[in-house]
Specification:
heterodimer; A: about 250 residues; alpha/beta; Rossmann fold; six-stranded mixed beta sheet; four-stranded antiparallel beta sheet; 9 helices; globular; B: mainly alpha
Chain lengths: ~250, ~260
């Protein structure tokens, strides 16, 4: 039976940092099983919104639900279902790759599924480096490790915060192919942010654009392109975000 | 739901054990710095204060200065290393950003606090056990109440683990963190009667020393090792337990509210 509960739901979410409002009354639904892009210029509130889902930022007002569960009152249960690949490179530098993955799985309360771990290491080309300490890996390899960590506990909602920032073409291809496969084969819901708009256009059926903490558009990608009479998402993005700039 | 997701065995305790294991592994990997270095420091204290100067110091009791100072050094090893472990680990995780890996996981505030606390305590207690082992080369005075001695050591480690949590959460830089060591930990240790009987101090210093919580721990531990001292062991345990509970309430609240961790 089709899962009708949205994978992710923002309801009137506000985030204040002192006097500065980083996210303004955000309402958003990501359906179960979709690949959804949250786009916006730097400082638009994308990472802040993502961090509120996983509890790295506290919600000032409103609520966020993951598969129907409130992220504040049921934080332990919602976090179990979410895997996140952060924008910044984060790694326990003193631990080998395989041990890092086992550890990360343990943090989520899960026993390691060896087959799945080996699959991740193979697919992300980390297999030859499994016994190397994370600190010895190159930047690209660390990104692969972060992707593997986000997936090791088999999350139903995968959040990728600019996963392809500063990575080479080969890794970008690997990441997106894998994401598409996870979505198609296992039905994983994916929320991503990226500045490579052609990637979002290709992968996502629906997109949302945030600017200055406000949701300025939320629509199906194809419809958005036709409504805005644009050739590609980049044109739409520039049109919408620059018009907001003028209003501000 | 896909069978891919159903094929997962979840246990909330696994999160706690994993974090505890990781924290213990962290200091074991760096054993020369985390276990051997403090041991060498204490050996030097034993040689200088206990063996060399100690022979010329009389406390006016049957207890030799060396026997007097050993309980203090064992306790100092426990609290210094518990504090150092938890404060540096938490602060570095915050500083490097890898605390995010733990904060996004389904780990409760209690699990988080207890995993860090117990891991730091194991280091503190391990170092104090090593110091005790080394001290046997200098003096073999038997313990009067080993169980009570261990309990006080446990309480002292617990208290300084909580102080370490507060220090790491409230510090914005390495300099601030070192201020806790220089302006709190060292005065507490050196003015708590570790190297001298507090009753030997003139007023008002002897009175002021009694406001130092470490005084009760040191005297209690010394009492458990050597027998009668300035303070009854019951008062020491009572006082230390109250301090431990107050500090634990504060640190739990800090972690629960995500103070300087979330946002």
């Amino acid at each position: 039976m089709e899962n009708t509960i949205p994978a992710l739901e923002f309801e009137n979410v506000v985030k204040n940092f002192g006097d500065f409002q980083a996210v303004k009354d955000l309402n958003l639904k990501v359906e179960s099983g979709e690949i959804f892009a949250l786009l916006g210029p730097n400082g638009a509130g994308k990472s802040t919104s993502i961090n509120m889902i996983v509890g790295l930022n506290k919600i000032s007002k409103g609520s966020i639900r993951v598969f129907g569960l409130d992220t504040q009152s049921e934080s332990v249960n919602t976090r179990r279902m979410v895997g996140i690949m952060h924008q910044e490179i984060i790694a326990e530098t003193f631990l080998p790759v395989q041990e890092s993955l086992e550890l990360h799985c343990g943090y989520f309360g899960m026993a390691v599924d060896r087959d799945w771990m080996n699959e991740l290491l193979r697919r992300l080309a980390l297999d030859p480096h499994r016994n190397k300490r994370s600190g010895q890996l190159s930047g690209g390899m660390k990104r692969r490790l972060m992707m593997a960590k986000a997936l090791i506990h088999k999350p139903q909602l995968l959040i990728l915060d600019e996963p392809t920032a500063g990575v080479d073409v080969d890794l970008r291809r690997i990441i997106w192919e894998f994401v598409e496969e996870l979505n198609k084969v296992h039905g994983a819901t994916v929320l991503l942010t990226t500045h490579y708009l052609e990637e979002a256009e290709k992968l996502c059926k629906r997109i949302a654009i945030l600017d200055h903490g406000e949701l300025i558009v939320l629509d199906e990608t194809k419809k958005l392109l036709s409504d805005q009479k644009s050739k590609n998402l980049e044109e739409v993005f520039l049109k919408l975000t620059q018009s907001t700039e003028v209003q501000v | 739901m896909s069978s891919f997701y159903q094929n997962r065995s979840y246990s909330p305790y696994r999160s706690f054990y994993t974090l505890l294991r990781k924290e213990i592994r962290r200091y074991l990997i760096m054993a020369p710095q985390t276990l051997l270095a403090p041991l060498i420091t204490v050996c030097l204290y034993l040689l200088v204060f206990g063996v060399s100067l100690g022979r010329r110091i009389s406390l006016g009791t049957e207890v030799s200065y060396l026997d007097f100072v050993i309980p203090g050094l064992i306790l100092m090893g426990a609290i210094n290393n518990t504090f150092a472990n938890i404060s540096s680990s938490l602060f570095l995780s915050k500083y490097l950003g890898n605390i995010a890996d733990i904060l996004v996981a389904p780990i409760s505030a209690m699990q988080f606090l207890m995993a860090y606390t117990l891991a730091a305590m194991t280091r503190g207690l391990l170092v104090s056990a090593l110091i005790y082992g080394v001290s046997l080369f200098f003096s073999q005075t038997p313990w009067q109440s080993p169980f009570l001695g261990f309990f006080i050591l446990f309480l002292a480690s617990f208290i300084f683990a909580q102080i370490g949590v507060i220090a790491s959460l409230t510090s914005a830089s390495f300099d601030t963190l070192s201020m806790y060591t220089n302006f709190l930990l060292l005065p507490l240790i050196y003015l708590g009667g570790l190297f001298y009987p507090v009753s030997n101090l003139p007023a008002p210093w002897s009175t002021l020393s009694k406001f130092n919580p470490l005084y009760y721990l040191i005297e209690g531990f010394r009492s458990a090792m050597l027998g009668a001292t300035e303070l009854s062991i019951g008062s020491a345990i009572f006082g230390a337990t109250i301090v431990a509970l107050i500090l634990f309430s504060i640190t739990y609240w800090l972690i629960k509210t995500g103070y300087k961790l979330r946002n």
